[in-house]
Amino acid sequence: MNWKTYHFNDLSVGKLYEILKLRVNVFVVEQQCPYPELDDLDQEAVHIEYAEDGKTLAYARLVPAGVKYDIPSIGRVIVHPEARGRGLAKQLMEQCVEYILTEWQAEEIQLQGQVYLQEFYQSFGFQPISEEYDEDGIPHVDMKFTLK
């Protein structure tokens, strides 16, 4: 599989448009959650993507320590609706964790996950560090991975 990582300035205009369109289509339209998808974190992030035939099928955003949280974080985890059920979400999370542990030499990772995905994130070693809370009308929980 051909996973790619990009810094913001390495994204072509076309690739950035494709990623943002996918994020808006799923996080805003599909989940019926009208909120500002563009939050000024993309410019500082590393973007991980899997594409087939030029179409983004899986994507996540890695934010370095000190930008959103004191430790690195994973966010905007997404699989294109047409590619769900193929195991891409699992592979995507493996790519994200590996990148942060290897490239950033981090020992902890944080994420803000939707509650219905809590068990999925726990399967990678993330543990809840907050109570359930509402974020833009969707139940969320903060979770942290700690290298043992």
Automatic annotation (TrEMBL):
Record CDD domains: NAT_SF
Alphabetized Pfam families for the sequence: Acetyltransf_10
Residues of the N-acetyltransferase domain: 6-148
Protein name: GNAT family N-acetyltransferase
Species: Planococcus shixiaomingii
Lineage: Bacteria, Bacillati, Bacillota, Bacilli, Bacillales
